[in-house]
Amino acid sequence: MQLNSIVQPSVSVQSMNKSSSLTNETQGKTNEKKPISNTSKIIAGTAALALLGTAIYFGIRGKNTAKLEAKFQELINNGEMNETYLRIFKDTNKLNGEEFIKAAYNKLADAVGLAKKPELIIKPHQASCKSSFDSIELCLGGLKTKADQFNFIRHELEHAKQTEMMYRAFGKDALLDAYAQRAITHLKMNPLYCSQEFNTSKFDEIPKEKLQLFIEKCKSKLVEKTGFLDEIVKEKGKILQNTPEYEEAKKYMEAARNYKSPGMLNGINVVSSYFEQIMKEYKNNLLEANAFREGENIRDMYLKFSKLINKYS
Questions:
Q1: What would the mean pLDDT of 136-155 be, rounded to a whole number?
Q2: Is residue 41 over pLDDT 70?
Q3: 91: nearest Cα among 312, 307, 305, 313
Q4: What spans are recorded as compositionally biased (Low complexity) (predicted)?
Q5: Is 82 helix (H, G, I), strand (E, B) or coil?
Q6: Residue 141, phi then psi, degrees to nearest 5
Q7: Residue 77, Cα to own-chain centre: how many angstroms?
Q8: How confident is the model at residue 74 (pLDDT cuts 50, 70, 90)?
Q9: What is the reported pTM?
């Protein structure tokens, strides 16, 4: 962990080493001072700079600086903290509001390894958000704490990564077909939505030609957003068959075709057991299960980080 890369105090490694006087005594022979190797000087200087950087950055004094760093390292060694996330937490610790969100988003997008970052759209007062191939909406109305914001950002970035993989492996038509299938599932689950789109609330009564027009309409709304994904393919190339990435993308594509969400029940009354069943299917869908896992992981890590900062400040 190189804290000196976060804060660069105006102290050189050489000047710090000149002020130290380390000696080695030979056993029972002499008090003669031995020269310190260049390697030892660099290690000692780097460690000192790291602790000084932490102290300046977080406003922590004295022995608490070393204790805090030791606790961070303990969490990393125990697998309770991701070192990249820790760096991001430190870099954004003194930021707030939209400045924090933009910085956290950009740094996490880089950490995830996205070829292109979807546009971040911040909506300060809304609680319900939606994302697309080329954009991610973040609604602050339902995200009051930094822990919640880290959770949401990482969750949505995982979806962006999944979409990127599916598009690189299977292309435009397959991805649009999967999203059209999602719309059909919505029609089947929600009679109100079905009646809004057609003259019947029963899916089985929709004429085939009208259903086909509906599908094409759904795809056309998304086609203009696939240019963003085309640029990713140009940069990263296609995912080849018989590779671990391809097999992972294949599972994501299957999950996209079989996607259900509680939002598909909006506007209708359903028994609680059915709602709970759909919620369970939603959370167990591979796309969501992985996104929830990544979001919850970073939230839990940030809470540990914040707890230590408050304890040693």
A1: 91
A2: no
A3: 305
A4: 10-21
A5: coil
A6: -60, -30
A7: 22
A8: very high
A9: 0.80
